Amino acid sequence: MCGIVGYIGKNEAEPILLDGLRRLEYRGYDSAGISVINGKKIETVKAVGKIAELEEKLSKKDVKGNIGIAHTRWATHGKPCEKNSHPHSDCKGDIFLVHNGIIENYQELKDDLKKLGHKFKSETDSEVVAHLIEDLMKKYDFKTAVAKTLKMLKGTYGFAIVSKSEPEKLIIARNGSPLLLGIGKDEYVVASDASAIIRHTKRVVYLEDGEMAVLEKDGYEISSMHEKIIKNREESEIDWSIEEAEKQGFDHFMIKEIFEQPQAVTDAVRGRINVSDGNAKLGGLRDVSKELREIERIIIVSCGTSYYAGLVGEYMIEEYAGIPVEVEYASEFRYRKPIIDSKTAVIAISQSGETADTLAAIREAKNKGALTLGIVNAVGSTIARETDAGVYNHAGPEIGVASTKAFTSQLSILVLFALFLGRQRNMSLVTGQRIAKELEKLPKLIEEVLKQNDDIKKIMKKYSKYRDFLYLGRKYNMPIAYEGALKIKEISYVHAEGYPSGEMKHGPIALIDENFPVVVLAPKDSVYEKTISGIEEVKARGGKILAIGTKGDKNIAKISDDVIYVPKTLEMLSPIVNVVPLQLLSYYAGTLKGIDVDKPRNLAKSVTVE
Ligand code: G6P
């Protein structure tokens, strides 16, 4: 989704802005642009397509200056084309801005501005804001005009704005769209995402919703849009390094992140398991531990892959902690009338911590008096800051658009949640110890699956001619069938459906023939026999079977066309191991077709608009 970079300091802005844009590429975009201010001159260059196109255009110009703004656009209002890409400007070309988010009342504002004689160049909601500032600057200085403009806006935004009239300033503002202020030595780097800042500094300040900041070379001032100065805002430290955000010899971030899963699971549980007590130690939940003892219901809200993690979490928590759990798409939860009371805990699961729907859902839950918790990877992100308590994944940056290591990390944390909540209730010491012990073994088991990388690639080669896939799973592995189907869709653009195995006979069975292979999660668990019956039903109709089976299960090989074996673990933990071959299958399905799997078409890593 859209990305913002801004720079003010002692160095040339252009290369820093371009590098920042490249680091934000993974979020998904369709065009890009840059404005650099140099005294009374502002140079703006825009291009549709990749950052390389923008770079090419810039190479033909001599863009000089120490203050600038830049943007990657993911179209919402108006098609991807040069005139709709950012930065946008006012009538006179004095004010330039980049915007993330959506201005909901832009049409009324635009109509009013047109009556005042303003001329618009684009179809975007963002351009309206430049004209509003222009109008107010007839009476006010730059900062006051921006503050007064913000008060007129409905919707979400992250802004970086420059003006020729006060060329030594860069103004930023946020409301519902992430924006970080990186504090370097004699310079500031602003961005919607830490990955564009980390090369320059690890010291950051997070703006809160409704705040703006005026940056000059030698200092910055944060204030509310009501023009109240905010003093002594605490600085935070980004807790990952530049190396973690680079490919380190892998062809893609996605495969690097798949291979990082043993580490991601280790980091998710490190220092958080106490095997002898059969319990989890979750520091982030310490302050709400009393409330958690008393909750009677849990609602998990999330989107995409994080939603599927929630579905596995539901089974874990209900089975082991005995608390009723519902899992909801955040986009549904926020608009319906969910029944919530003070005995309900609402858990948001989000890798980025910035997904607009998940954030809105958690705000709604808070409003209704629920205890809100987060399972979030991005430290300092909005969801992490707005929930009452939570647990960080510590999975490191996830750059590939399709979530992989964040998913297995989320599942590991959900095991810790089930353990913690279970031990507060009826779970026995022995059960707690068994889960804790097995959880510690998981990284090794994932490594065993990763060793089969080459074989999995060969299997995918055989299946790459097919255009449709059905993924089946039951009980704990039902959500893994959903996730497997989602992953192959996202990464290789083939049609795939994830289904609960038991539901196959109520519909999808009609589709089965020799051209519709079925990927079946068939671990040796409590529903193994039922899964086998499902496989037989597919075979009887001429369907092809690719099974994910438990190591040592010879029977599965007899009834399947191909099998990928994974090591045995507890049933509740099996999704964490079983999803890995499905991720690899998707990766190869995409790369064998030559798709840029880190940036598949139309998708965004962090969906910060509705
Ligand atoms: C996007 C990404 C998915 C991700 C989902 C939820 O659709 O492409 O990979 O699962 O957003 O994101 P979150 O950051 O909230 O986990």
Explain this structure to me?
This protein is α/β, with parallel strands linked by helices. The protein has 3 domains: 3-238, Aminohydrolase, N-terminal nucleophile (Ntn) domain (Glutamine Phosphoribosylpyrophosphate, subunit 1, domain 1, 4-Layer Sandwich), CATH 3.60.20; 243-443, Rossmann fold, CATH 3.40.50; 452-596, Glucose-6-phosphate isomerase like protein, domain 1 (Rossmann fold). The chain has 19 helices and 27 strands. The strands form 5 sheets. The chain has an 8-stranded antiparallel sheet with strand order 3-2-4-1-10-9-11-15, covered by helices on one side. A 7-stranded antiparallel sheet has the order 5-6-7-8-12-13-14, covered by helices on one side. The protein has a 5-stranded parallel sheet with strand order 19-18-20-21-22, sandwiched between helices. A hairpin with a 4-residue loop joins β16 (273-274) and β17 (279-280). α13 (405-424) runs antiparallel to α19 (574-592). The protein starts with a strand and ends in an 18-residue tail after the last helix. The mean pLDDT is 93. 6-O-phosphono-alpha-D-glucopyranose binds at residues 303-306, 350-352, 355, 358, 401-403, 603, 605-607. Residues 303-306, 350-352, 355, 358, 401-403, 603, 605-607 line the site of 6-O-phosphono-alpha-D-glucopyranose.
Summarize this structure briefly.
It is built from 19 helices and 27 strands.
